[in-house]
């Protein structure tokens, strides 16, 4: 967990330093890396991971509950963003992305290993693959296409944006249709490597975008402002989402503790790529990722230190 926190912080600081040193050049590089993440790395990871996935008996309810808690917080974000905060479409969509996409991979898996032991990592990977990955490809890209400023004006144009700008969805469909023999050992290793590499790319982009924000005097805002949309996103992602999972586990079918931890993960860095591609409010996405990640990492380090005493 310490290694994860260090790697993420280092990538973020490099992003911050790059923006301060090269300005627009760093922003351009950040956009190119996000394109690489969305159009190359993510499709490869999805295909070779899903194609080789074997579900174990007894986790089905937890995966259904995982989808349920995500749908609940996404709908709440839409309702609060559009009706109560009266945000423009790009702002409401950004809130929905911030609460619907969680960092259950780079952050959630090592946190499960820290709290529950390495024998529970398999369940964490299953949750990440069966809940988070499809939600990114279907829910995340659909939200981006529906609410983004660069997705088109008509319904047909937005549908076209969803399909054309979402090659990872095609990879998911192919992975579900083709037999597991299409995934040799080396391909699965490649997917694992790319999955690990996605997070530093995301945190580099996060660091660059953190320093893009300015106040009216031109002074950079760091840390990002804890605005009402960001605060609501934090509450939905870190409190309501795991609360829904806990309630379903207590009153319907008990699910593994691993799934409860994964349900409360920070906002996922892949939200940056979706926000960039479709033109969502990056300030909300950046703020939610930065604050939620900091909260989870600090809490995890404290738990780790206490547990080691």
Automatic annotation (TrEMBL):
The chain crosses the membrane at residues 36-55, 62-81, 93-117, 129-148, 168-186, 193-212, 232-252, 259-278, 284-306. The keyword Membrane applies. Keywords: Membrane, Transmembrane, Transmembrane helix, Transport. The keyword Translocase does not apply. This is Unannotated protein. It comes from freshwater metagenome.
């Amino acid at each position: 967990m310490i290694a994860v926190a260090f790697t993420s912080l280092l990538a973020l600081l490099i992003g911050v330093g790059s923006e301060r040193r090269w300005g627009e050049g760093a922003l351009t590089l950040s956009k190119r890396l996000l394109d690489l993440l969305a159009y190359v790395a993510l499709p490869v990871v999805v295909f070779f991971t899903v194609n080789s996935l074997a579900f174990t008996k007894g986790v089905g309810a937890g995966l259904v509950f995982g989808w349920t808690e995500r749908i609940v917080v996404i709908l709440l974000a839409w309702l609060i963003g559009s009706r109560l905060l009266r945000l423009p479409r790009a702002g409401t969509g950004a809130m929905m992305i911030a609460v619907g996409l969680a960092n259950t991979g780079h952050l959630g898996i090592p946190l499960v290993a820290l709290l529950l032991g390495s024998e529970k990592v398999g369940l964490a990977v299953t949750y990440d693959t069966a809940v988070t990955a499809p939600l990114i490809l279907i829910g995340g890209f659909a939200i981006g296409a529906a609410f983004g400023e660069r997705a088109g004006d008509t319904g047909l144009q937005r549908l076209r944006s969803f399909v054309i700008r979402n090659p990872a969805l095609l990879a998911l469909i192919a992975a579900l249709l083709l037999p597991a023999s299409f995934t040799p050992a080396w391909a699965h290793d490649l997917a694992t490597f790319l999955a690990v590499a996605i997070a530093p790319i995301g945190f580099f982009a996060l660091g660059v975008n953190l320093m893009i924000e300015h106040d009216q005097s031109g002074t950079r805002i760091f840390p990002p402002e804890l605005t009402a949309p960001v605060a609501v996103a934090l509450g939905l992602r870190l409190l309501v989402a795991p609360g829904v999972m806990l309630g379903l586990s207590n009153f319907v079918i008990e699910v593994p503790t691993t799934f409860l931890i994964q349900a409360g993960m920070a906002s996922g860095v892949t939200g940056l790529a979706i926000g960039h591609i479709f033109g969502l409010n990056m300030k909300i996405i950046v703020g939610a990722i930065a604050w939620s990640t900091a909260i989870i990492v600090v809490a995890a380090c404290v738990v780790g230190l206490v547990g080691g005493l």
